[in-house]
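Researcher: Structure for this, please.
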Amino acid sequence: MSVLDAFNLDGQVALVTGGGSGLGWAMAEAMAEAGADVALADWREHKAKEAAEMVRGLGRRGLAISADVSKEADVKRMVDQTLAELGQLDIVIANAGISPESEPFLEEPLERWQQVIDVDLNSVFLTCREAAKVMIPRRRGKIITISSIHGAFVGNAEGRRPGYCAAKAGVVGLTWTLAIILAPYGIQVNCIAPGVFRTELGRGLFLQKEPDEKTKQIIASAIEHIPLGRLGEPSQIKGLALLLASSASDYMTGCVIPIDGGYTAW
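Model: Predicted structure, token format:
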């Protein structure tokens, strides 16, 4: 088998949460381009349908699933629907997340904190748990969690979004522990920690075609921390996602990998 063959996903099924846009869309596209059929879960049904259509356009089966992955019943239904319609589950990318604007720490309401923990951490636990139930009997599988450099390696430079950073740190701890728990069953669990990408996260500030002065300052401040001097594009996460989803990473588990333009190198 050549090294390129190790990245082939023909005959496999991937499930991507938060697959309707941004990094989730890009990673789902990578799975399909490598040969996998893909289930796309998103709380916005129309976004999931658009992503599924993209997968079908690449010649693979695409399944749209409307789900709020912070809810246990929705996650169970999501996995059951994937199995029922696509037949198996080989790869899971627990990507869904939010990053709402936060108040100064002393004014941060508990409700917002809980919302972020539910979506950014609890959903990862639920998705991994339900996927593992399917993968353990088969004694194989790839689970990819999505954290962030903010929480995994550094704090928020602006001193904001404590819930987001706490949740993303929790994803790292969960990844390490699941890697140990599931290793005897031939299941690898690894984590991607993105830096600042042009996505809808954070109210889509980095997607604005004509940003106002405040947004320009935010973008400039972010770029100041990035040695490569630019924001990440969603397509640039595809290679790393494919590595972790394929047999090319069969001796990797419990890894937390930043993809941040060098942000954490400083």
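Researcher: Any notable elements?
Model: Helices lie at 22-33, 45-57, 72-86, 110-138, 149-152, 162-182, 213-224, 238-245. The chain has one domain: 5-204+233-265.
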